[in-house]
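G., the chain you wanted modeled:
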Amino acid sequence: MPLSYPSSERGLHRRPLPLADRARLPSKASAGYERQVLHGELIGLRARQDSDIEIFENELLNDVETRVRSDGRPWRPIAPGSAHSPYRESDERGEVVVPFSAVELATGELAGEAMLWGIDLHNRNAHIGLSLRPAFRGRHLGTDTVRVLCRYGFAIRGLYRLQVDTLADNDAMIGAATRAGFVPEGAIREAAWVDGRFADGVILGLLATEWPPAGR
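Predicted structure as tokens:
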């Protein structure tokens, strides 16, 4: 889960609509609205749209401090709209990675991205990940995003195990996962090269038989 970093509107087209307006959910009166979004209490997950990608590239892709902590690949500057953007890669991994855009239900605004990745249909497991836009961090949206991802993984995809892999000092992601029912399973010593040093990682897991957690 990212740290904070100022947003940017560099590289947008001439006279664009405000980013928040372009990333809103369809009106609840529009046909099929309820079928377009996988609902939680605070967050909805929907298909990623072209307008979302432009925002992710401006606010998440070139957030250096966050990117070096959340991506195992070395960071490099990529201009918004570039064919080298990971958000514009051809969708050849549909059975392995399922990306979502996360929207705040109360406002309809784009809050961030979420995904299931490393989907293994034989062993019925997958990993989950999320990244919130700077303006939406610290608002308790991460836990609900994890819960909605769990619903997708367990109830819709029929998976048996979901896993979170993060840095040992990523308190925000660890907290969101544990509040959603994930159990710490172990540490991986000095497994990630992060900004000039090796950092420890942690693994948290949740089984279908443990979901939803008691009281939910």
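Confidence is low (pLDDT under 50) at residues 1-31.

Shout if anything looks off.
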